[in-house]
Please model this.
Amino acid sequence: MKSPGTLYFVNRFYAPDMFAATSRLLTDLASDLAANGYSVAVITSRLRYDTTQEPLSARQQMAGVEVHRIWTTRFGRHSLYGRAVDYLTFHLSALWRLMALLRRGDLVVVMTDPPLLSVSLLPVILWRRARMLCWNQDLFPETAAILLSFPVGSRWIISLLRGLRNLSWRYADRSVVLGQRMAERLFADGVARQKVQIIPNWEDGATITPQAEQDNPLRVEWQLTGQFVVAYVGNLGRAHEWQTLLAAAEQLSDRRDICFLFVGGGAGLTRLRQWQAEHPQVQIRIEPYQARDRLLSTLAVADLHWFSLLPALEGLIVPSKFYGIAAAGRATLFIGDPQGEIPVLLQAGECGKAFPVGAATEVAEQIRAWADQPEQCRQMGLAARQWFLQHADQSVAMQAWRQLVQEIAAESHP
Model:
């Protein structure tokens, strides 16, 4: 096995935080590579995703991974300006720490939390004659330009940041993306096809498995016994369109056997609670984020999962919650671009259906039909599990990542 030197992963969150999706993914990958003989280190913050309090230890050894926790501000996720300052201080601290640690031949795997890390870290990577791999969970600044309202006169800033980001991609040895639509975005921005690798995110199929309704303690705890549960699990953020689903839920208010369950948080949670208060006739239950050891029961409590993505964000974001849903053997209802990444997967796996934004009546009719014939959902759930084991299980992704690291190491040691 050829070694690329030390593998440095840079991301704002890492274990023991398990609420941030990037933290869970990075923890899985870093631990696997360390277990397979690589020298692995992580540069991360001292923060937890769900709180700005109780900063974590500055230095840890975890499952063979050297963890360097750097200083940042701690304003948290509730203010855009505070979050921007947290991002900026992480950029600066990560750059300073890499200057001290990085050696010639090392490989730096740069994630996208915070955004544009590949831009700020590229100078020190070039200076140290190290190598860079960009692991793109989402694409900025395009996502920010769509979700946030920037003054017309600031568009040049978006163009400048995009140009710098594209430059960092071209210098990188590889760019990992989550799907074909995202890969096409990189091709359009001038990244060579041989430098782009599609490795979808994953879930651990040994931990997340199908669970029967009678074995799920949350059915009783959350008073869902006998209900057809339509669930959303995770962050309800600015990238998600949920008015269509709520309009469908309102049309189903006559069905007391259908319950809409939200588990998680995010920028949309306050508005969701307000909507719930204004529509008492609709059966909605809201629960907070659940601990990692309750993830199986949380995913399995649903008969049907739904999630969404604004169509304008196709190719910029790939909703990774689908993999956990499929691992749990549950069907999916997706709202967004019917030709997007997730609808293609649903069609290939025969494990759900996609609807365009605004199709509330069609969504309501489909949920009503599945509630009347729940066996259809169960069959799609079985198909989802089979698709998952072949394409999105953690073991499949880890093998793809190990092969990619070996390719880069071979290129640096011909």
User: Anything to note?
Assistant: The two ends are 13 Å apart (CA to CA).
